[in-house]
Amino acid sequence: MKKTLLILIIGIYNIGFSQTITEIDSVSNVMCNYLKKLNIENDTLKINSLFENQFYPYLGKLDKSKAQKTGQQLYYRLQRNCVEFRDLLDRLEPPKESVQRIKEKPKPKISREQLDEFKRRKEFYYFEVSGDTTRVKMEKGNWTDSFSNNTFSKLTYNWINETEFELTFVESNNETRSNFSVKGDKFIYQVLSKEDGFYLMTVNIPGQDTFEKFKIYFE
User: Fold this and answer.
1) Domain harbouring 154, CATH code
2) Number of domains in the chain
3) What percent of the chain has pLDDT over 90?
4) pLDDT for res 57
5) Which of 51, 74, 80, 171 has its CA 20 to 30 A from that of 26?
6) pTM of the predicted model, to two decimals?
7) Are 150 and 134 within one domain?
């Protein structure tokens, strides 16, 4: 569904110009507010209304050039900036491994020994929405995601307290990540507990009141 929608956007609107990320984020916030107020129960009709009344009309006002980049960035930044849009996409195409979004920040239940073990580890992996495996190397302040299609993302990390670290996006040649994030974007990760073969984590985007629980695995 997510990939199909993106192809549809690019196919219908072969127009556009290079918008600044500030402009794209501003437009995504307008679209998010529209989605929040949309009183439609059927999710397919809801996303159709969003695209027909907001997304496509916006793209239709732009001058010709760089349509693909503009459409991609707006689509992915809308996911980043709008929890309601992420929820909608997940209902239309449920992730292979479920993600739990909560409003209250959970308290960690991890011992100091388990946390020290996490910090000594250098290699992890997690599952994408599609079910693909992404490998992580975490070492000396650098975090690198290696994706199944041989692309990568590079970030830096900095521990801000005993159980939380801040990830800062640097660069990526992966289509999704390079449009979802821009250089300097930050994410707050928290280690909640150690389970059988994985750590339970949360991720929060600063400025948003939602915490997403997910699993990061080790071997």
Assistant:
1) 2.40.128
2) 2
3) 81
4) 87
5) 171
6) 0.88
7) yes
